Amino acid sequence: MAPTSLTRTAVRYVSEDGVLVETDLEDVCVDRLARALPVRKIRSHRGQLNRPGLFWSATTRDHIPYESLLELDRLLLADFDPDVSWIAAQPMQLEGKDGRRVRKHVPDLLLTRHAKCPLVVDVKPPQFASRPDVAEVFAWTARLCAAAGWQYEVWTGAAPDLMANVRTLSVVRRFVDAPPRGVADHALWSAMSELWISGVSPNRPLTRSWVLEGADR
To answer: Does domain 10-158 fall into CATH 3.10.450.50?
Structure first.
């Protein structure tokens, strides 16, 4: 890509072998970034409103940390998506200029997809996603992703019936290890297709960590 002020945005991530990598959007190695470890700690303390935890992914065959139940929902959908080949949580910290302001932001998810560009996802309840300060960060992130040739998504939730069905199938899926993975996934995806016959897409939004500290700004 041709260098621009956007592609010079700093990118920091922790590689699969635990090494902190500092580069920029122009030079980042997407293959290494795709397998990045969480770039920030997911905090858990008494009285907090969100509920962080670990999700066992059939896609990565490993635990993926999440910061909220809404983020868990997006992980469930990604795990059932046949286009998704890998899932990374809190994969990178972006830092760069947005006009006169310097912003930092850690997107929630990076989804690597078969024969498609990477998908960067931010998960936020609709009441927070619409706040002007949050929307500005998301708009900046969207511009960065466009400059890098990536797709960007702000995900605010899916239909309750869809998520209830996905959660049920997710429990069943944990025990389907005997058949070849492709056969098991095909069978489960066929079942999910029946659930979506009404036309609801699993990836369609209803509306529009270990080393780095610091809030988005």
So the answer is: no
